[in-house]
Design brief:
elongated; FAD/NAD-binding_dom; 2 domains; Fd--NADP_Rdtase_type_2; 6 helices; flavoprotein; FAD/NAD(P)-binding domain; single chain
Length: 352
């Protein structure tokens, strides 16, 4: 059985940063993730996707962000159970929790932090009759390595941030980028919409709206798509393409966590905003997996939630100790092996 102070369900950016904040309080963490490597969606789905809203980084690739987080928490020596899904949870007589994975691995901790992002997920696929026939033959739902699209004709469908961001990024990679959206208005960030419009004006992106891809053409591989325009001028366009990337978001599922007795609202776990604790004391939910009034699904919001959660966790583990978190400063932080790493160090005053 694996014992730890905080058991984190999910090894995405929020889960990884939790290790750092807990480590500053000398709390040990262990992470469970169904994926074979840390990083969550940032590693599995879009490691080469640029992220623009991490403080101090005007732009950072998702995979690089994960690498930086792993380096940041190295001194605190977190444990990992990867390639296994947290399946069941049981509260023991001593008040701690026993979490068992689908492969039978048991974990015991007084605190459980669910940082599972969107949970298990599947891409939302467009309703195109012959779509499945071209999967991995010109159709992809995620972009892991943009170099695959170097000097190719790429068509992206979608109206959210992913569709906009990848259209912008691939404009300097692919020989031709076409963005198709069923509406004239986009759901992404205004800045991204303006960049796409500017690239259209420069002739670097073909923008077709309102329209939908209705049919794929090819034999062994995709070579063209049929686009149905709507609105004032209905027409059909046959567009030669090498790659079709529908980016309509993910369909999230909480999986077994939905059966843990937690209060669920629209496939997310309800928490209070004081410390992001759920309706079960000792179980917290942070990052995209939780919901509360005003919730924003941003990585930086998950970092904030993780920070407050760790303060509350410390008080639950050590109810007889009072402390004041004063500030962080530059210096060597002591790892659990006694080594010194160059990293921020928390200055904490503890009163017995």
């Amino acid at each position: 059985m694996i014992k730890t102070d905080i058991l984190i369900i999910g090894a995405g950016p929020t889960g990884l940063f939790t290790v750092f904040e807990a480590g500053l309080l000398q709390l040990k963490c262990h992470l469970i993730d169904a994926l074979p490597q840390p990083g969550g969606q940032c590693s599995e789905i879009y490691p080469k996707k640029p992220i623009y809203d991490i403080p101090g980084f005007p732009e950072v690739l998702a995979g690089d962000l994960v690498n930086n987080l792993m380096e940041q928490i190295k001194a605190f020596q977190p444990g990992f159970t990867l390639g296994e899904r947290a399946n069941t949870i049981e509260k023991l007589e001593d008040g701690t929790f026993l979490v068992t994975t689908n492969k039978g691995t048991q974990h015991n901790a007084p605190i459980v932090a669910i940082a599972g992002g969107l949970g298990s997920f599947e891409p939302r696929k467009p309703l195109i009759n012959n779509l499945k026939a071209f999967e991995d033959k010109g159709v992809a739902y995620f972009i892991k390595n943009p170099e695959i699209y170097r000097d190719k004709k790429v068509l992206i469908a979608g109206g959210g941030d992913s569709a906009l961001d990848w259209s912008i990024f691939l404009a300097d990679v692919a020989s031709e980028v076409t963005l198709v959206h069923r509406r004239n208005e986009f759901r992404g960030a205004l800045d991204s919409v303006e960049k796409v419009q500017a690239l259209k004006d420069l002739g670097k992106i073909n923008l077709i709206t309102p329209a939908e891809v209705t049919e794929l053409k090819g034999t062994d591989k995709l070579h063209a798509v049929l686009i149905q325009k709507s609105g004032d001028k209905e027409e059909q366009i046959i567009k030669e393409v090498d790659e079709f990337i529908p980016l309509f978001g993910l369909s999230p599922k909480l999986g077994p966590i939905a059966d843990w007795g937690l209060e669920i609202e629209k496939n997310a776990i309800k928490v209070n905003t004081f410390d992001y604790q759920t309706n079960i004391p000792g179980i917290y939910a942070i990052g995209d997996v939780n919901t509360y009034p005003g919730k924003l699904k941003l990585i930086l919001c998950g970092f904030h939630e993780a920070t407050l959660m760790c303060q509350s966790a410390y008080q639950r583990i050590y109810p007889d100790k009072k402390y004041v978190m004063k500030y962080t400063t530059v210096g060597g932080v002591s790892g659990f092996d006694g080594s010194k790493k160059q990293a921020p160090k928390a200055v904490v005053k503890t009163i017995e």
